[in-house]
Amino acid sequence: MKYFGKTYLTLNLLVYAAIGAGAFINPEGFAGGIDLGFLAPSAVPEFLATFGGLMLAIAVALATALSIRQHRRVAYALLALAYAGFGSGRLYGMLLVSGFDWRNGAFLALEILLVVWGILCYRETRWLPVEHGH
Fold first, then answer.
1. In 3, 23, 72, 108, which residue has its Cα 20 to 30 A from 37's Cα atom?
2. pLDDT(134) > 50
3. What does pTM read for this prediction?
């Protein structure tokens, strides 16, 4: 069974690149779109580090995994782990801090889907031959 690993990586690459670019191009607008406010001068560099630089670095790593097949398995595992972390933090926040709302519910459902998809892609690559010496 095929789990469309290249599609998974490509979609993630595009999303992470868009988030990173959006954060750098218009930090205030981007932050406002997700209800974040810059309450201290140090907030903008922190926001740009996380939503700008880190997201673009992840996009570059995903481009590398798409270009070099032997890196895909690690990319699937790391994306699944990242989405498990996003989902866990979101669920914790909804249960103990903010309560449920439609947007966080939709993101949690998407994160669960992306965890499962990443795990399936990872498991599928277990049986691929490993290339040595290249």
1. 108
2. no
3. 0.85
